[in-house]
Amino acid sequence: MDLVVDTNIIIAAILKRGATRNLIFSSFLNLHAPEHISYEIAKYHQELMEKAGMDSDSFDAALSVVLSQIDVISKSAFSSKLAEAAGICSQHPEDTPFVALSLHLRIPVWTHDKAFSRHKEIKTISTEELLRILISE
Hints:
- This protein has helices spanning 7-15, 19-24, 36-43, 45-52, 56-67, 82-88, 96-105, 127-136; strands at 2-5, 30-34, 70-73, 109-110, 124-125.
- By secondary structure, it is α/β, with parallel strands linked by helices.
- The protein has a 5-stranded parallel sheet with strand order 3-2-1-4-5.
- The N and C termini lie close together (11 Å).
């Protein structure tokens, strides 16, 4: 199953063991993210390190391992969808790269952000929904 991964999924996988982390490493999933994900994680790097109880090197190593499971896609690859995504995300511009990539690849966004579902033009999937789908297959 192909999915665009929201930043909160990556953060959850780093911060604690559980279903989200296990799914990141699942062979059943092909995960994609816009390169913007690196900016978002860098923006909160210090706060995330503290929450994880890690020093910078440990956090960066954990992040690298998680990101190794994700196809990080350059903005130029989905630039044709940025204007449409910006219109969809006018109230929440930080979602634009994820929505644009979702539109480009025609796949859902995996997110823990319940408010993300406000973007009716794309499909979203939660970890709980994803687990139900994978268990039923």
